[in-house]
Design goal:
mainly beta; Immunoglobulin-like; 5 domains; 13-stranded mixed β-sheet; 45% strand
Length: 733
Amino acid sequence: MGRFVIAAGVCIIVGILFADVPEEQGDPRQLYSAWTTKPPKINGCITDRTNDKGSAAPGTDNDEWDDAYARIVTLNDGSTVLLLLKNDANYLYVAVVYTLASNNSANNRVTLYFDQGVGGGENDDQLTANNENMVSSNRASAASHDPWDRYWDGSSWVNDSSGVDFDVYEGYYNDVYQWEFAIPLNNGNADDLNVNGGSSTDAGDEVGFLLEIFKNGIGTFYWADTNMDPNDSTSGKGWGEIRLGKPRKFMKIAATYAANGDPIIDGSISEDAYRGCYQRDIVLTNYKGATIPARIYALHNPTSDRIYIAVKVFDSTQNNADYCQVYFEQKNPGPTSSRDYILDDNYENAMRVDGAGNVTDYFFDDQGGGVPGAWLDDSTVGDPVNGIAAASYATAEKCWHFEFRIPQNAGQYDLDQLNDDALIGFLIRYYDADKPAGENDFWWDLTVNTDVEYFDNISDTNFAIGWASLQLGAPYLQVVHPEDGATVEGTYPVDAWAAAASGSIVSVEYQVEGTTTWVPLTRVASTSYWAADWDTTAVPDGTRELRVRATDSNGLQTTQIISVTVSNVAATAAPTVIVTAPSPASVVDGEVTITFNIDPESGLSITDVEISIDGAAWTDVTNMPTSGGNWDDGYHRWDTTALPNGSHIFRVRAQDSNGRWGYSKVHLVVVSNNVVVTITSPAAGSVVNGSVTVQFDVTVEANETVSTTQISIDGGSWGAVTTPPPASGGNGS
């Protein structure tokens, strides 16, 4: 990128390499600010949203910053700082937490520098005169904490003409500093930021960011991954960047009801065993410029009190020293349905498995004595490995398969008495043994990059802020259509299968990325199948995130996220497809002939017709329609004898010569094979006259009931019998 300067009719190109930071590529300079509807109280204590400024002692509001993006950064003196970032439409909230032993001088200062576009908006990686923003504060004292609110005048940072427009306070307790800032994003003052903070569904602008900390008697230090120059945001590494309003609502992982049974923990992730469970593609990063794609699977069996976590890590190099470790945080001791964002001494749980299959079970120990806590092997306190883990490398996929089975009620050094609807903390770390020292640890790029956040050295408090959450007992939800990665067009089906661990499913909905509306799906009869039609022409072409969520009667939710490509390039409409037989909700058995009418646009032909039964893969129908039959003479022969009795659904789709697919509505029928009806009177061939009582016997399979009994005479219409048999089968007339 270059900057053009026009002078006396001559075009001079001044080459400037702007230091733009790429997102989601593991660059350590990339930060996010999470969208929030819960502003913190600016009082110098990140666990107190009640008291006024000046109370630095730890409070009990451990969740005050729970929805923030959290990151540990390193200063150029080697010390570390915990940054907490979140924002709403009006303010960016920043917490800066670090240890500085025996140094509570009023001269200690934290300064935050911000770069925006010219006049506001997305940052341009250069400092522009009469623009940008800097906020700064001394350590609070009885007199004043001397806040600075400044802008860049072209050569230096000078005081805003509007005065101090931000809020700040600092607390110092047990050698730990806690600074809390509230910085206006768009207050209308020319000397401050003028940027879009985003919304609950879409991220906002990105701003350049530099962190400076003055430690009295020691020196001034900067975030070491930047160029550490407050007067130049461009040269060298440049500054860091903060993407505002990053939606964090999908940081809840749903451990869904194990409707398909429990997986076998053997290090091979079977898609059948995990079918319909929560699945999520994530990015792992070491914040040293490297990323690794991964996929998380989560299941919960409340009957056996077991949690299942599986992770595919797409590391192209196999090294048996690689390992995956998963962490869990809860309110202790149990029983409990919640977390408290604190790592409790001699509680919590983590499990590790390496490429060689070695399994280690961990608990958290606060260590005492004014040092950060640590995760210790359960064997150090005589506690056995509770749970199972396994790993294997899938050469064809070029990825590791890691599987974990974690008991939810194994006692003090493990998860302890978790209720079946518990919401607990969850963190994942992957160790890549091939990387150089200091670059081995990979974290989910939207969670904190540490498993210990040290808070104070008297009560030995260690936080678990910035973790994801894990919801136990979540509804089972399998998105049937569209498939992940599918290309969609026209009116496309959104179908899902949902079941509750307890209670019932009350709604299934979908939402398209970039929209705020959740569109309801309709339950198909009394089944677990839900269906809707999505008009894809209402959104621009391109890759879109499609979110489908199920809610049960207990208020628990599962949200599945898939990626689809919208491509409405054809000028013609898709063909219409109408199933003509069998009738909706009819009872069928044996071999069933499914017929359908297809109407392509004038001048087009039908090139393919497929059917999907019970959400299975699309397969060709047995008999294609022909142009001679006006595309209405096709059919599909369906053998129902291999299916269990009960309700089943299918869809038919047809493709025209322009390549567009049209879809039928979801069609439900009831399969009822092996129902035996025996007429016991009158005998076959007997002569009858007058009023005759026809007696019969009905036999059904175990666990099935008779719902309807009808009679047809001489091939006429079916009508109800006078005396139906009992629901369990037997005699009728």
